[in-house]
Write a structure and sequence with these properties.
Shape: globular
Largest sheet: 6 strands, mixed
Mean pLDDT: 77
Helix content: under 10%
Order of helices and strands: EHEEEEEEEEEEEHEE
Strand content: 25-35%
Low-confidence stretches: 1-42
């Protein structure tokens, strides 16, 4: 972790500061696998692998359908949301359904939606100016509960990989003044809960201050 700039106020409800934008999200190009295996003269056929998201760099976000996320309810968050804070409540959401994660760098918040219902929200750490977190939509391509960064030799518990050039969501010591090298850091207890509900291919949408129109979404008191 390194020190970032001045503290930003985080005094808004997480459900109201998250966003879904598509105008500036460009469709990425598929990447080659990390390892190019040598071809034999008569390679044996391999079974097709289903539902494995294509790896991307931070400059290759995916396009997003504007109707991907219809918000049906948001968590009630009373008072300022401070570094280290999080909320989690699955009681009014379906037990199954598509999971989408939204991140607002300006508001320093992350929210988790299942079937349109917000089930979790947390204050985050994000990339410092020289190593910013990318904007756009990225599918989760790897899960590793005990990951250790091979670049910085640092633990990244409950890691959800977003790009193949070092961006992930993971558990962190979320304190004011700290920053990451581009990852999204969340409180480790929250990261454990997020890890349990997230699956490969689930979409993470990262934006910087644009508002999500929650429309008639209800706050669950």
């Amino acid at each position: 972790m390194r020190f970032a700039g001045p503290k930003l106020a985080v005094g808004v409800a997480a459900g109201a500061v998250l966003l879904l934008v598509t105008a500036y999200v460009e469709r990425g190009q598929d990447l080659e696998p990390r390892e190019n295996l040598e071809q034999t003269a008569d390679p044996a056929p391999k079974p097709a692998v289903q539902n494995v998201p294509v790896e991307r760099t931070r400059s290759q976000p995916v396009a997003v359908d504007p109707h991907t996320l219809a918000v049906k309810s948001v968590l009630p968050i009373h008072g300022p949301f401070r570094h280290g804070d999080y909320a989690w409540d699955e009681s009014r959401a379906p037990a199954v359904g598509p999971v989408i994660i939204t991140v607002d760098l300006k508001a320093q918040t992350l929210s988790v939606f299942r079937a349109g219902h917000e089930i979790g929200a947390a204050v985050i750490l994000y990339g410092a100016d020289d190593k910013p977190s990318p904007l756009g939509a990225f599918p989760i391509t790897q899960k590793d509960a005990d990951h250790v960064s091979n670049l910085y030799d640092a633990p990244m518990p409950y890691m959800l990989r977003l790009t193949n050039d070092g961006v992930a969501i993971h558990g962190s010591d979320v304190q004011w003044g700290n920053a990451t090298h581009g990852c999204i850091g969340v409180p480790t207890a929250f990261a454990r809960k997020l890890f349990a509900v997230a699956n490969l291919g689930d979409l993470v949408i990262i934006t910087n201050g644009k508002m999500l129109n929650v429309g008639a979404a209800l706050s669950r008191n």
